[in-house]
Structures are given as structure tokens and as C-alpha cells.
Amino acid sequence: MKRMLGWVIVMAALGFARPAFAEMVVIVNKDNPVATISRAEIEMIYLGKKKQFQDGFTAVPVDISADNSIRREFFANILGKAEESYRLYWLRMIFSGKGQPPLMLGGEEEAVRFVSQNKGGIAFIDSGLIAPGVKAVSISGMK
């Protein structure tokens, strides 16, 4: 009986564990006609330098809580910035009155929910979390 209980616990843990090989994707609302977006354009959106997608939708970037491997991958591969550098950039922008940082949400699931409900939403998540209402976009110009 103990042995069977041990297997049940192991199988339950495996069912809820996040795969070690998570892949970061950038998502937009399913109704946003954007299929491909450049790395530079994503960077400009997340730095507040670009406010709209090429189709005219107002871009509403979403950030997720710190200490997340997907977030670290996004900063390294898309923004090309350390998280601290990004934080300091936004502090300067806020205090100079030149902008507000992306909306900060608690996690990737919240980001998916937000993007699915906002046509201009854009976020980065683990590819395994893509759900109805959002779509992954191809990223051109990756380093």
C-alpha cells in the first residue's frame, strides 16, 4: 500500500511539474492580424518607444513577475538587457514623466488571460501555456 501511494505521489508531481525544456513564445490576441513581429519591434514596445502594432491596434505589453526562467529568457534574447537595467530604465522614464512600464501581472497564466481579453495585448509565456484566445507570433531578427 505504501509503495502504491508513493507512485501516486510521484505521478501526481510529474503531472503538475513544468517541463525543464520550456520554450518562450510571444503571444498576441487571436484577433490581432499580426503573424510576425521583429525582435526590434518587441523591444520598442516593451521600452515604450512604440505604441501600436503595424495593423493599428494599440500595443498593451504585459510583464510577468520576477524570478521566472521565461522572463529571464525574454530579457536576454529579446530585450538584450539585464532585468536590473530594464528596471532602472523604467524608473528614469517614470520620474521624467515620459512613460509608464508594461502592466505587471503575477504570472504567465494571468498574462494569457489578459491578452485573450485585450486585442492589443502582447506578452511572453511558456509555449505550453498557449490557450484559446491567444496565438504565438513568429519573431524575426533574433540574435
For the structure shown, list the relevant keywords.
143 residues; alpha/beta; D-Maltodextrin-Binding Protein, domain 2; 5 helices; disordered N terminus
Short description:
With 143 residues, the protein is of the alpha/beta class. It has five helices and six strands; from the N terminus they run αββαβααβαββ. It is globular and about 40 Å long.
Describe this structure in words.
By secondary structure, the chain is an alpha/beta fold. The chain has one domain: D-Maltodextrin-Binding Protein, domain 2 (3-Layer(aba) Sandwich), CATH 3.40.190. The protein is about 40% helix and about 20% strand. It is built from five helices and six strands, in the order αββαβααβαββ. Strands 2-6-1-5-3-4 form a six-stranded mixed sheet. The N and C termini lie far apart (about 55 Å).
